[in-house]
Design goal:
Length: 183
């Protein structure tokens, strides 16, 4: 990721923590929670890896096409599962943005004075993803109210807490906006 190291490490920590919580959600007793949590864990950990500052670790040239292939497969899976749940359309957008950013990072630098990773992205595509994820973050933030009543809150396991799942999705959305701004 381009930019200063301190914010990049904060983004790494945020995305890794989100990915870890999504792994916990995969143990949920609710089928839909488990199904969504797997893709969200992949996104969280993938974003954490992509956010590692280039000054610390510069992946080999073959890593970015592999990264694009993994998230391309995840995008196809999300597209397939979107038939049953509209929430998976968001997963299609997220995994597509990851493919886009990996391809941008794989591109050769535009000039000798450019960043350690690849060139800059296509402004229209970057802008479209930024617009989508900014809207998603604003909408998710507005919906971030506890869903459980006081009586239910004590009976729900950590992996089944809908407000925590929303908070993780909000965190990943903010992370995606941050990463797209750095492209």
């Amino acid at each position: 990721m381009h930019g200063p190291d301190a914010p990049a490490w904060l983004l790494v920590a945020l995305c890794a923590a989100t990915g870890a919580y999504c792994l916990l959600r995969m143990r949920s007793g609710v089928e839909e929670q488990r199904r969504a949590a797997g893709g969200e864990a992949l996104m969280g950990f993938g974003m954490a890896v992509m956010a590692v500052p280039a000054t610390v670790f510069a992946p080999p040239a073959w890593a970015w096409p592999l990264y694009a292939a993994v998230f391309g497969a995840a995008a196809l899976r999300a597209l397939w599962t979107a038939r049953a749940s509209a929430h998976h359309l968001h997963h299609v957008a997220g995994t597509s943005a990851m493919v886009y950013m990996a391809l941008v990072m794989a591109a050769p630098p535009a000039s000798a004075g450019h960043h350690a990773h690849g060139g800059s992205g296509v402004p229209v595509v970057t802008g479209a993803f930024l617009l989508y994820f900014t809207g998603y973050v604003l909408l998710s933030g507005a919906r971030l109210l506890p869903a459980a009543t006081a009586g239910q809150a004590g009976t729900l396991r950590w992996g089944d807490r809908p407000e925590l799942a929303r908070a993780c999705r909000l965190s990943m959305g903010m992370g995606m906006v941050t990463m797209l701004l750095a492209v």
